[in-house]
Design a protein that fits this description.
By secondary structure, the chain is mostly beta strands. Helices cover 4% and strands 54% of the residues. It has helices at 5-8, 34-39, and strands at 28-31, 45-50, 64-70, 74-88, 98-103, 112-116, 126-128, 133-159, 165-192, 196-199, 203-211, 222-233. The strands form 3 sheets. Strands 1, 2, 4, 7, 10 and 12 form a 6-stranded antiparallel β-sheet that branches.
Length: 235
């Protein structure tokens, strides 16, 4: 596996209590030294993907799916994406795209949802891991009560035995009734974590890179991205 000096040159590698063997990948998976760990919010490892890693993916509209083994009893957290050079084929006939997502065998975008890396105007140069999330569930409850409605203005006439009106009274007369409905909402919140997973048994990270439908990933002549992760080993 080749090493990219541009990423880690001059850094003293730290002897960590948690160690992970370099997996057999088409991309570089490197442990970080102390300076880079500090610069990248405590990340311990970085996956480096550049356009040359995609040279074997020569079929149009076909994604590259690359796996990276994760040992049992390991916690994994996505920390950040850093796009050093946007991916580009140089072809002006199509709108280029290289969308990356990172997940595992159970969820293909668990750690990173689809993020554009191509240079056609929507590339994302920096993206951080998702924060803790809160989900609010609202349950409406109806409360009803009768009330009066349909009041009209009417005239009531009183007549004598000869049919002559003796008294006429005009006033409001209730004709119908209706129901007033009030709605109250009871809310509950649940806190979850996105981009985190603990592997009690061995698993794998899955990197998926998808081109635009007209081209193959191998057509890219530039592009390099770093994906940082924090790995924690537990007993």
């Amino acid at each position: 596996m080749r090493k990219r000096k541009s990423c880690l040159s001059g850094l003293v590698m730290v002897a960590l209590v948690l160690t992970f063997a370099a997996p057999a990948m088409a991309i570089d998976w490197l442990a970080l030294g102390v300076p880079e760990m500090a610069q990248h919010r405590g990340a311990t490892h970085v996956a480096v993907i550049d356009y040359a890693d995609l040279a074997s993916y020569t079929t149009s509209n076909t994604a590259a799916v690359i796996t990276n083994a994760i040992p049992a009893k390991t916690g994994v957290e996505f920390v950040e994406l850093m796009l050093d050079t946007a991916f580009d084929t140089g072809n002006t006939n199509y709108t280029g795209s290289v969308a990356v997502k990172v997940g595992d065998g159970s969820d293909d975008d668990l750690f990173l949802t689809s993020t554009e890396l191509a240079s056609d105007g929507s590339e994302v140069f920096i993206k951080y891991g998702a924060p803790n999330s809160a989900t609010i569930t609202s349950t409406p409850t109806k409360q009803t009560a009768d009330f009066l409605s349909g009041v009209t203005l009417q005239t009531i006439s009183l007549t004598d035995t000869n049919g002559v009106t003796a008294l006429a009274v005009t006033g409001l007369v209730q004709t119908t009734s209706a129901v007033l409905t009030n709605v109250t909402v009871a809310s509950t919140a649940s806190i979850g974590e996105l981009g985190y997973k603990v592997y009690s048994s061995a698993g794998s990270l899955v990197f998926t890179l998808t081109p635009n439908s007209e081209e193959a990933l191998s057509a890219n002549t530039s592009g390099s991205v770093r994906l940082y992760f924090r790995l924690t080993k537990f007993r």
